[in-house]
Design brief:
The protein has 306 residues and is an alpha/beta fold. The protein folds into two domains: 11-243, Alpha-Beta Barrel (TIM Barrel); 250-294, no CATH class. The protein is built from twelve helices and eight strands. The strands form two sheets. Strands 2-3-4-5-6 form a five-stranded parallel beta sheet. Helix 9 (227-233) links the parallel strand 7 and strand 8. The relative contact order is 0.13.
Length: 306
């Protein structure tokens, strides 16, 4: 049924629902959803939470992931994904869009838009994808101030502190930063771009009991691990940030090449989502039934009296 119906809306705030998922014993799997339709497909596949990647957002807009989009642009994606799926959403907050007051504005804006969690990273602007070279970090104290500001602004959104220090200063420095960020108020830690199983395990052993997030991005520095493997290493969350966008973009490229080559899309029909499949996943017939049930047409039986 469409989420326009109040009885179909999720109960509790997004932050409360995200915390409830995180409190369960099994690892929380958060596939990336780059738009509302992808979010619906992820929910249909059985996922209970989602991730919104800054890299996926910017790429879908035809831009690089350099921290150049705005809080309002991200909020547009947050709202459509949350409204479409009703699932708790972890949002990529990049570096917080500025200093402490900007971070507070971001947290309140994302929470108002429906986000259940947000992560902040300790890079300087212009930031880079965590799996690229040439990253630079802010001081530990400056990042801790941002985390404290985020916590002060939040109602119950989950604050995840991401550190990119492993690839810049070494894994021990990343652990030290993580401890500092936890003291500043972070609810969870995201150690970015760890490159071996041993690094993942060492980081988890160094922070016992702390909810940790693993990033299983493709074409990056991290080897392929499954959700179960990350769970065994001590991680509570795992994201696949850009996978949905990569698949969609590859399919679109094949479509456009076929149209240019063949003069039409007729040779791509077997690769297309059908009209029936599209209408099923967006709930067209549920919306139509809802619309027709709200006001029943009354047909006058006789002309009104003069």
């Amino acid at each position: 049924m469409p989420y326009l119906i109040a009885d179909q809306l999720p109960r509790g705030s997004a932050g409360q629902r995200f915390r409830a998922l995180l409190a369960r014993p099994q690892i929380l799997r958060l596939p990336g959803a780059h738009n509302g339709h992808a979010a619906l497909q992820a929910r249909q596949a059985g996922f209970e939470g989602l991730y919104l990647s800054g890299a996926a957002m910017t790429a879908s807009m035809g831009l690089p992931d350099l921290g150049i989009i705005t809080v309002d642009e991200v909020s547009f994606f947050v709202r459509q994904i949350v409204r479409a799926s009703g699932l708790p959403l972890l949002v990529d907050g990049d570096t917080g869009y500025g200093e402490a007051l900007n971070v507070m504005h971001m947290v309140r804006t994302f929470e108002d838009a429906g986000a259940g969690a947000v992560h902040l990273e300790d890079q300087v602007l212009p930031k880079k994808c965590g799996h690229l070279n040439g990253k630079a970090l802010v001081s530990m104290q400056d990042m801790a101030a941002k985390i404290a500001a985020a916590k002060k602004a939040s109602r119950d959104i989950v604050i995840v502190a991401r550190t990119d220090a492993a690839g810049v200063e070494g894994v021990e420095a990343a652990v030290a930063r993580a401890r500092c960020y936890l003291e500043a108020g972070a609810d969870a830690i995201f150690p970015e771009a760890l490159v071996t199983r041993e690094m993942f395990e060492h980081f988890a052993r160094s922070l016992p009991g702390v909810p940790l997030l693993a990033n299983m991005t493709e074409f990056g520095k991290t080897p392929f691990f499954t959700a179960s493997e990350f769970e065994a290493m001590g991680y509570r969350m795992v994201i696949w940030p850009v996978s949905s966008l990569r698949i969609a973009n590859k399919a679109q490229a094949r479509l456009y090449a076929a149209i240019a080559r063949d003069g039409g899309a007729h040779n791509m029909i077997d690769d297309m989502q059908t009209r029936a499949e599209l209408y099923d996943i967006i709930g067209l017939h549920d919306y139509e039934a809802l619309d027709s049930s709200i006001v029943r047409t009354v047909i006058p039986e006789r002309p009104p009296a003069a």
